Amino acid sequence: MKRSFVIAGALAIALASAGYGLYQLGMHRGMSQGPQPTAAAVTSAPANENGEDATRRHMQAGLKAGDVDPANGRKILYYHDPMVPGNKFDKPAKSPFMDMMMSPVYADGDGDNSQVTVSPRVQQNLGVRTAEVVEGILSPQVSAVGSIAFNERDQAIVQARATGYVERLHVRATLDPVRAGQPLVDLYVPDWVAAQEEFLSVRRMTGNDLATLVDGARQRMRQAGMNEEQIRLVESTGRSQPRITLTAPIGGVVAELMARDGMTVMAGTTLLRINGIGTVWANAEVPESQAAMLRPGIKVQAQSPGVPGAVFDGKVQAILPDVNAATRTLKARVELANAGGRLVPGMSVTMTLVDPRQHKALLVPSEAVIQTGQRAVVMMAESGGRFRPVEVQAGLETSGQTEIRRGLQAGQRVVVSSQFLIDSEASLRGLEVRLNGEQR
User: Fold this and answer.
1) I need a labelling partner for 402 at 20 to 30 A (CA). Which of 194, 254, 289, 304 fits?
2) How would you classify residue 346: left for phi > 0, otherwise alpha for psi between -120 and 50, otherwise beta?
């Protein structure tokens, strides 16, 4: 019984195999004897035929890589999936990677192997966008950040011009605000008493030819450190003036205070240092690549989070020979008007530096320029869905626009997105290899 079941199973498998073979033979004969497409059928391709439609037509016509497509007279190089461009196939078929037909790649009739053809459908899938090369006015702008510092050109030093004693100090601490002409220090100068008394004694003398003696006594007061105003005060009052009040030569803040009540000071001792605050410096950190756009005199507008809503005008005073090796930034010294003293040292500011030198230039969106490290390349869009790489000489960049000095003409179109995904030959590395070969 068991043996009969085994025999029956083997017989069933043999019958099934024989039936499948007869089915395959019949299908093969039917297909081989079926109607074949004529030359007229394959030579008339729709004008808007894309890569997938062309592949289906090639399958019907039995075309493969190396054949000439009778619809356009172009030689078929290979078939590929535009979404997986690294793989090439000799025969038309459905893509093994995506749910789509592969597309044919032709050898262009003009022999320009640097061109890449992409069907409209693939362009839409990849999100390819293009922009026109336009001629416009380039107004270079540089954005930079920096910090506020005192204007060291607006600075004054108050010193003792004779040995004396500090009787009274009118300012008490560093960064105290002062105004021009405000009393700062009262000094008692004993050495002045003798010179002044000598002068007054000569003036009281009677007789002829005393002018020389009076001038000599006046000169000794100058040598003691008295200025002309103090000498006139002695002459007008007729009394000695052993005390002097030193006043602020400029308005600002006390940046440094070395004097204290009761201390003895020598001639030439610095008592205070005053910094003006009518203007301040902003030390801007400018990228090294944009340093060529800077020059002294360029107008600057600055804003600070410490003074919201306020805009401070100024200009570039100097380009400092100092480059930060870590950030690759160049320092530019900017002088800003500081009405009301709202900007104080240490504040951070953001600055926009505008060069008034405007000139016409060819402009493209900055995102269209591919920096390869050795050259700048753009992908130029041509008619019929063709693209080719073009080496350009890029210039200044500002407000999202890049100047093109060589390589393009006004009216041409360049790709601004999906440059690296256009086609199997749209890989930047592959395009550069062909581009180098053409240049050689």
Assistant:
1) 304
2) left
Q: What is the pTM of this model?
A: 0.54
Residue 288 has which token pair?
């090294």
What is the rounded CA–CA span in Å between residue 244 and residue 164?
10
Classify residue 36 by burial, with Cβ atoms within 10 Å: 0-12, 13-18, 19+: exposed
Per-residue model confidence as pLDDT tens digits over 309-350: 899 999 999 988 888 888 888 889 999 999 888 999 999 999
Q: Is the pLDDT of residue 126 over 80?
A: no
| pLDDT above 90 coverage of the chain, percent | 24
Number of Cβ within 10 Å of residue 3's Cβ equals: 7
Give the Cα separation of 94 and 52 in Å (integer): 9
Nearest to 156 by CA among 61, 270, 52: 270
Torsion angles phi and psi, residue 215, rounded to 5: -65, -35
Write out the H or E segment, with its range, that includes residue 392: strand 386-398
How far is it, in rounded angstroms, from Cα 179 to Cα 322?
35
Alpha-carbon distance 407 to 391, whole Å? 6
Instruction: Give the β-pairing of 279-287 and 141-150.
Output: antiparallel
Q: What is the pLDDT of residue 144?
A: 87
- Residue-level pLDDT at 116: 67
Find all residues with CB under 8 Å of 240, minimum gap 6, and list them: 192, 193, 196, 197, 200, 234
User: Residue 438 is encoded by which pair of tokens?
Assistant: 């053409």
Give the DSSP letter string of 257-299.
Answer: E---TT-EE-TT-EEEEEE--SEEEEEEEEEGGGGGG--TT-E
Question: Which residues lie across from 89 on neighbouring strands?
Answer: 79
Does residue 246 register a pLDDT over 80? yes
